[in-house]
Write a structure and sequence with these properties.
Blueprint lengths: L3 E6 L4 E2 L4 E2 L3 E5 L4 E7 L1 H20 L3 E6 H5 L3 H9 L8 H13 L4 E2 H8 L3 H9 L3 E3 L10 E4 H11 L3 H9 L12
Parallel strand pairs: 5-6
Antiparallel strand pairs: 1-4, 2-3, 4-5, 7-9, 8-9
Length: about 190
């Protein structure tokens, strides 16, 4: 997710009435909103439901958003495997001039441009695009869409769109991870 500043694993312990609870992750976003994420297999969700409900209330009182992500959400439509595919390019080195050309092209086209068109116009390989995606220099209009038809946009455009449509990046992340989540009340007025 391109607007994350940091991710902390098992960031703290909560004392709940019935037990202690350590969430899996704390996501901190660029403008200060934070989201606590618990990852649970769907098969185990029911047995942990009371503890997760209690944790949700405690976290809400502390001003933190809470999301339970199931294995099905993470694997839906190949999201996890696409994320791993992009992540492979984190340590690669690309030609800075090509990356700058890519950024310049996207800045001139705020509506976005399809991957195939970008590759053709700039004579780029997928590796350059994946490297830029991995390093949050650009993003896709749909979460981690890696098809040739995927629409690429620059980060400024993405951020402006999220800022105008959602009250927090935490809420948008929940919708980004699972588009079926939430309703129109999640959107900013």
């Amino acid at each position: 997710y391109p607007l994350i500043k940091s991710i902390q694993h098992q960031p703290f312990k909560l004392s709940l009435e019935e037990s202690k609870y350590t969430p899996d992750f704390l996501l901190c976003f660029l403008v200060g909103s934070r989201l606590v994420v618990e990852v649970k297999p769907l098969a185990l969700l029911a047995q942990h439901e009371p503890k997760l409900q209690s944790a949700s209330l405690v976290l809400a009182d502390a001003g933190l958003s809470f999301l339970v992500a199931t294995d099905l959400m993470i694997r839906a439509d190949g999201l996890a495997s696409r994320a791993m595919r992009i992540r492979r390019y984190a340590k690669t080195i690309t030609n800075k001039e090509l990356t700058d050309q890519l950024l310049s092209l996207l800045e001139r086209n705020p509506a976005g441009i399809q991957v195939s068109e970008v590759m053709q116009q700039l004579d780029l390989t997928q590796e350059v695009i994946f490297h830029a995606l991995c390093h949050h220099r650009i993003c896709t209009r749909d979460p981690l869409d890696l098809t040739p038809q995927a629409v690429l946009i620059d980060l400024k455009t993405f951020r402006n769109e999220v800022d105008s449509d959602y009250p927090t990046y935490a809420i948008h992340f929940g919708r980004w991870l699972d588009p079926s989540r939430g309703d129109d009340n999640d959107r900013a007025s």
